[in-house]
Amino acid sequence: MTNPIETLLAQFPLAILDGALATELESRGCDLKDPLWSAKVLIEQPELIYAVHHDYFAAGADVAITASYQATFEAFARRGLDAGQAAVLMQRAVQLAVAARDDFWQGLSAEQRALRPRPLVAASVGPYGAMLADGSEYRGHYELDEAGLMAFHRPRLEVLLAAGADLLACETLPCLSEARALARLMEAHPGACGWISFSCRDGEHNSQGERLRDCVTALAPFDSVVALGLNCTAPEHVPGLLQSVRGATAKPLLVYPNSGEQYDAGHKCWHGPADSEQFALAAGRWQREGAALIGGCCRTSPADIAAVAALLRPAAG
Fold this sequence. Notes:
The protein has helices spanning about 5-10, 20-25, 40-45, 45-60, 75-80, 85-105, 110-115, 130, 145-160, 175-190, 210-220, 240-245, 275-290, 300-310; strands at about 15, 65, 120-125, 165-175, 195-200, 225-230, 255, 260-265, 270, 290-295. The protein is α/β, with parallel strands linked by helices.
C-alpha cells in the first residue's frame, strides 16, 4: 500500500487541507436546503464544485476533499436515482476534484511546483448519520452495530476507491464503532487507505462521548489508516483534543475544525465573527500542538486557507 500522506509529509512538514465545500457553494448562490446537501450540486451545477476545488488549490491547499460526503446510494434513491446513476455521481465527485487538481498543477511554473507538494484528492466518506440527515453525526448512538455499519459503507467505498482518488477522508464520525467499521473495510481492500476524523463535543470527547485518546489508540494498529484527528468541531476545543491524544499514536494528526461562527438551528443561520487572520493564528497553535494536516470545515473559505498557507508556509505565498 502506498501511503500518500506519509510521502507528502516526508517532503514538507505540513499538509494544508482545503476548507468548507457546502457553505462555500452557498456563498456562491447554491441553495443547499436539501437532504443531499452539497451532493445536490453534483447533479445541478458540477462546474461550481470544480471552481471551488480550483480556488482552494490556488489558495494553497495540498488536499481537496470531494463532494461525496452526503453521496450515498440510499440518499440518491430517495431522489429517484438508481444504483448506477448514484455511482456515476459519486465518481463525478472524485473526477471534478482530480480535474481541478490537474488543471491547477499544469498551470504552475517549475519554480512554483518546487515550493509545494502536488496536491492530493481525498474522497469524502461521510458518516451514517449524514445519510439519515437528522443530525445524528453529532450524537452517535446509532441503531446499527459495527457489522451493520460496514454493510452500509461497503458499496460506496468500493465506488470511491475505483474512481481515482488518492485516499479516503472518513470524516465527521461521531463514534469509534463507525471508525472501526471503516478501518476494517479499508484494511480488507487491497491498496486502500484513508484518514479517520471524528466530530467532537468538547476538548476530550467525540460526539458520542468517547475519549478521543481511546479512539486513536484503538485505530493505531490499522495500517490503512494514514492519519487520525477531528473535524467539524468548534476550534476552541482543538488544543485540548490534540493534547489529549499526545503520545497515543505515531500516525500524523489532522484537524479541520469549523470557522468559529455559531450555528443557530432555530433560525438556520450563523452568528459571530469570521476572521481569516485569527483562524490562521489558531492554526499555528494547532501545528505547535502536533497537528501535521490542517484545514477548515464548516464556514471556512479559500481566504482562510490562504491565510493559513501564508502564515505557515510563507515561501509558497
